[in-house]
Amino acid sequence: MSFTQEQLDALRAARATGALEVSQGNERVRYRSLAELNQVIARAEAAVAGTGTRRPTHFQPVFDRGT
Prior knowledge:
With 67 residues, this protein is α+β, with helices and mostly antiparallel strands. 43% of the residues lie in helices and 12% in strands. It has a two-stranded antiparallel sheet with strand order 1-2. A hairpin with a 2-residue loop joins strand 1 and strand 2. The protein is elongated, with a radius of gyration of 19 Å. It starts with a helix and ends in an 18-residue tail after the last helix. 6% of the residues are buried. The mean pLDDT is 86.
């Protein structure tokens, strides 16, 4: 899932106030616990920073003659 900086800011603001419900526009999400909210914030931070888990687009094979 892709996150924007605005969504990340809204998640952080909810955590700061202790709220488990985040709304943006006409979308509303309620998290079950603070732990779940923290997990989503961590994923959002990684996505915004561009360090999310991505598959490699290419690889360099290594050959060995076995000598």
